[in-house]
């Protein structure tokens, strides 16, 4: 995977050096990311917006066909509430003294949690996405593109407050008041998948772009045993951009 990213970066630089054969520019906008995976009974969530920025270069083979290389910053920003069961937790358990009612905080490591319901959950991940796509130009500035991409995780957050926490096999370890849920390191460093998009570009170089991408690999590490299945990232990205150099207009 790392070798593929290095090769893709070299290809992007090499193509950009021959701008006379195509065009290059920048884009700014928003991305809308959501997880695709098993629906757990009792869970709910709401995806949000995430800032997006990218640079692109398109190498033109013919007036109709080209090769589009990009480097994008995009992400996923979502709130969630969900039950988790049968997993090893790392974090802070919050107990209450049965006599005084005083709150006792205890940090745990790889402790078996039979059941926990996570509230006020927040998932916020930033990725460097590197798509490479075939592009096809229609009349009057319209372009379609379709290809594959690799995402490299730059940052990740997955936190919340778990209640109704039962510890140990079959809950025999007792119940605690709460669990400071933090699994921000549970995400894979690299994911990959397919993408498709459409763009309209004016003769002055201003362009409007919308892209759909869907990962084919899980965004969780295999070691994250709280996930009840495979979850993949689906992203819709919309941007406004400007052609800095290259061809004067699309034909």
Features:
nine-stranded antiparallel beta sheet, mainly beta, elongated, 1 helix, 6% helix, 9 strands, 251 residues
Protein described:
There is one protein chain. The chain is mostly beta strands and 251 residues long. The chain contains 1 helix and 9 strands, in the order H-E-E-E-E-E-E-E-E-E. Strands 1, 2, 3, 4, 5, 6, 7, 8 and 9 form a 9-stranded antiparallel sheet that branches. The longest helix is centred in the N-terminal third of the chain and has 16 residues, at 2-17. It is elongated and about 80 Å long. The mean pLDDT is 85.
Class from helix and strand fractions? mainly beta
As a percent range, the share of helical residues equals under 10%
Biggest sheet architecture: 9 strands, antiparallel
- Terminal-residue CA separation: 36 Å
Radius of gyration: 23 Å
Low-confidence stretches: none
Can you tell me the overall shape? elongated
Strand fraction band?
Answer: over 45%
**Mean of pLDDT:** 85
Number of helices: 1
Give the number of DSSP strands.
9
Order of helices and strands: HEEEEEEEEE
Write the layout of secondary structure elements.
Layout: H1 2-17, E1 22-36, E2 44-60, E3 65-96, E4 103-137, E5 142-167, E6 174-182, E7 190-201, E8 206-215, E9 232-246
Antiparallel strand pairs: 1-2, 1-9, 2-3, 3-4, 3-6, 4-5, 5-6, 5-7, 7-8, 8-9
